[in-house]
Write a structure and sequence with these properties.
heterodimer, A: 279 residues, alpha/beta, Rossmann fold, 2 domains, six-stranded mixed β-sheet, 25% strand, B: mainly alpha
């Protein structure tokens, strides 16, 4: 059964152009030039329930914008999206209760309180019975190995610990579809590995459908049998991960990225505009 | 909204209030100082107006007892109706942090109430002894009404005033969907509030020509009106009209919120990674 479907999905951002300097500022005061940028351009794909799919592409390719449209955060400018039979941008409670979004760079937790307190808010937010709440919590705590962290103030957690607690909080209502935007960003190798293992078990044991973006090739290689490569708002590749790499490197060179990698040689990890590549 | 949904929302808000009480208590020293501030400001206005009253030979439109009651109790009304959310909401809209609220299956306009109520419970716990102290200092002129119905009407007008300020604040924050920087709007509203809500100058002291204007603008209903209800300066007709205007402004702000929220989400850019 299809969990996520995008049909000719598009998003155009409008922005204002200002020439440099004081003169440009004055000019734009009276004659503002409005420009458009097509971030996502007629994207179509379908993901089945229980799949785990990686979303790859250079910075600004449209990965996150697509993800945000599928979560209902952004109104599409064109096309349609369906997630679990719902139209995301309507943001119905029945829809929001079945999905979760985890962003590596934004957090759900309250800094001043232990995670336990935020979890109790989520219990009411997602209308979980005490039995379900306990069961889900026990399961996640074991999967993540964080039982001793539940009553520690969030601001006293390390980055890796915090990310695990973010995942725990985001998943306490057992979403059927999980969207992850850079879930391992800034984590050390060991923590990255732990988060990956966790996501894999989540997918295997609970059947959670997962769509994730990451700049770390290891994430995708380890987790996703299938990858989507998006570049300049268009889907360039949809298929097995092994074949995605060359499509991705071609996309990066075509985009004219500074120091774009030669598809035949592996670039240095962390080079500007370049995705990290397995050694 | 079904009954079941309403019950869930209620339990959620109760939980959020609890969490916010705990968070506020983390910063209890700072909040105590805010409350000193909230008591000292009306006390200073009171001293100024009492001096004017004495110098003018009781020629002011409010007598000594009314002035004292008005300003001693102002701290409570000001704390209950106080707002601070708009700059945060505007920043969340601009930098994309609103996304985490949009992912939650409960409307932000209701869940954000938890933050206000939680913080205000702690603030009131610290404020009430200070107000009692102020009342004791002015005990010779303080006149608290004895009739329970007047206190009930006061509580009702206070509740509507708190809803009105909450909605006005939320609506101003929502402007960030369209304008880069809402701080100018907030500063203007702050100025109008200081001037027209009766904070520094009781509205009875304004020139009579301005009175009809003050009655139809929203600011009277955010601070002055509940105090007028309590101090007994209003007749039955003025009381009824006041409640009608107060509720009317509340409804108007609710409609404004609905429109801005609906269209704002269409232009929301969910900035950031």
């Amino acid at each position: 059964m299809t969990a996520i479907e995008a049909v000719q999905l598009s998003k155009t951002y409008t922005y204002h152009h200002k020439a440099p300097g004081l003169r440009g500022s004055l000019e734009s005061l009276f004659r503002r030039r409005t420009l458009e940028r097509r971030a996502v351009d007629h994207v179509s794909f379908a993901i089945d329930q229980g799949e785990i799919v990686g979303f790859l592409g250079p910075n600004g390719a449209g990965k996150t914008t697509t993800l945000k449209m599928l979560c209902g955060l952004l109104y599409p400018s064109g096309g349609a999206a369906q997630v679990l039979g719902h139209t995301p941008h309507r943001r119905e409670n029945a829809f929001l209760k079945r999905i979760a979004l985890v962003m590596g760079q934004k957090n759900l937790l309250r800094r001043d309180l232990p995670v336990q307190e935020t979890l109790l808010v989520h219990k009411e937010l997602y209308d979980l019975s005490t039995t379900d709440f306990r069961r889900n919590l026990d399961e996640l705590v074991d999967l993540l190995g964080v039982r001793q962290l539940l009553d520690v103030q969030v601001r006293k957690l390390s980055l890796g610990e915090r990310m695990k607690m973010e995942l725990l909080t985001a998943l306490i209502h057992r979403p059927e579809v999980l969207f992850l935007d850079e879930p391992t960003i800034g984590l050390d190798l060991v923590s990255q590995q732990r988060v990956r293992d966790f996501l894999q078990r989540l997918n295997r044991e609970l059947g959670t459908t997962i769509l994730l973006t990451s700049h770390y090739m290891e994430d995708i290689r380890h987790l996703c049998p299938r990858a989507l490569v998006i570049d300049q708002g268009r889907i360039r590749f949809d298929g097995p991960f092994e074949d995605a790499l060359s499509a991705l490197l071609a996309a990066a060179s075509a985009a004219g990225v500074e120091n774009a990698p030669d598809p035949h040689t592996l670039p240095e990890p962390g080079a500007p505009g370049v995705l990290e590549v397995p050694q | 909204m079904t009954l079941h949904e309403a019950a869930r929302l209620w339990r959620l808000i109760a939980q959020l209030i609890k969490v916010n009480v705990m968070m506020t208590l983390e910063y209890r020293a700072a909040f105590f100082i805010y409350m000193l501030n909230a008591t000292a400001q009306p006390a200073m206005s009171l001293l100024v107006w009492l001096a004017v009253n004495d110098a003018s030979g009781d020629a002011l439109p409010l007598d000594r007892a009314q002035l004292v009651t008005y300003y001693v109790l102002m701290g409570i009304v000001a704390v209950v109706t106080g707002t601070w959310g708009a700059p945060y909401l505007a920043a969340d809209i601009r930098n994309g942090d609103l996304s985490k609220d949009l992912m939650k299956p409960a409307p932000l306009i209701f869940t954000a109430v938890g933050n206000y109520v939680g913080e205000k419970i702690v603030k009131l716990g610290m404020l009430l002894p200070l107000v009692a102290l102020l009342g004791w200092l002015f005990r010779d002129s303080l006149q608290l009404p004895g009739e329970p119905w007047r206190w009930l009407l006061f509580l009702l007008s206070l509740l509507i005033a708190a809803s009105l300020t909450y909605l006005m604040d939320f609506v101003q924050g929502l402007l960030a969907f369209w304008i880069q920087d809402v701080s100018g709007v907030l500063a203007l509203e702050d100025l109008l509030e200081k001037l027209l809500a009766g904070r520094f100058i009781p509205l009875a002291f304004f020139p009579p020509a301005l009175a009809p204007l003050l009655l139809v603008l929203p600011w009277r209903y955010t601070l002055s009106f509940p105090l007028e209800v309590l101090t007994g300066t209003l007749g039955p007709a003025a009381l009824a009209a006041g409640f009608a205007w107060q509720a009317g402004w509340c409804a108007a702000m609710w409609l404004m919120y609905r429109v801005l929220w609906r269209y704002g989400l269409r232009v929301y850019a969910a900035a950031g990674a």
